[in-house]
Amino acid sequence: MYERFYGLREKPFTLSPDPSYLFMSPKHENVYTHLRYAVVENKGFVVITGEIGSGKTTLINYLLARIRGAVRVAYVYNTRVSPSQFLKLVARELEIPVETQDKVGIFEALNRFLLREYAAGRRVILIVDEAQNLSLSTLEEIRLISNLETQKEPLWQIILVGQPELRRKLEHPSLKQLVQRVTVYCHLEPLDLEETKAYVRHRLRVAGAKREDLFTEEALEAVYRYSRGIPRLINLICDTALVYGFADGIPRIGADLIETVVEDRRRSGLFFEPAETAGEVPSPEAGDLGSRVRDLEQRVRVLEALVGELSERLEFCRSLEREWREILKNLLLFINIKSS
Q1: DSSP string, 47-62
Q2: CATH number of 193-280
Q3: Which of 5, 86, 157, 195 could pair with 191 as two cysteines, CB 3.0-4.6 Å apart?
Q4: Given pLDDT bands bounded at 50, 70 and 90, which one contains residue 332?
Q5: pTM of full prediction above 0.90
Q6: What CATH topology corresponds to 26-188?
Q7: What is the rounded distance in angstroms from the CA atom of residue 42 to the CA atom of residue 155?
Q8: Do 108 and 98 touch, CB atoms closer than 8 A?
């Protein structure tokens, strides 16, 4: 919608974990180095934690994109499951045919599969996302399947990815044996102010921006202040700011527009705020609220007009397509007659 207005090839601040947009801050570089080392050296059990939206999944997708052909990967997202359900999910992800619903039978089928892959020289990696939601019993089941190994090395690698609660959960006394198997642990910290500025400019550059100063310095400082350096929140704020700027015909995003974006999303209850900065938002005065409503109505009218214009262009293109089809049909008919 706003791409042409701001000279972009595509939207730079989508929320999907696209590895092509990965910004390697020193913090991300450190975690990636440890993660890559663990995978290359087959270090068995790995735990990665970080706040919601800190970039954990993007970082893992970036690594997988570079090793995908060399390994078999099972990626489990659904973690609010029982131990037996978890084993079934793993078997399904690895495309292991299981003829029984019995947990022991699934475990044995998994062991046979891993032995075949090991004999064929193929690596297997299990990645469990949102691992903080795993129950203690399912985490114990993961410890048991991590015991599948040869006399020299593990048959596969297990990577647990989760929010900071995962680390606290792993401190439970019943998981002591599991923790002892963790060979690499990393925590992904939020970006600082300068990294946040570089992150925004990086994503604009990847999206084909002709200018990297599309956001003013003051705007970038406001983005950091409200996002606390969490990439997902940075994307949310910046994408909405571009939509607002496009609707209002603003060529460069300033701090006042960032303030408006955050205020609007807070009022609608659609803005997640890091716990340490969250606070009660004072009720607006009636006059202020009326002004905001008028501003939003104006933006809606602009966007409706643009949608109408695009609809007219689409209908024009369809009309041209019909005319060209008719011309082509007549041309082919003429060629056929001449050749006869």
Answers
A1: EEEE-TTSSHHHHHHH
A2: 1.10.8
A3: 195
A4: low
A5: no
A6: Rossmann fold (3.40.50)
A7: 9
A8: no
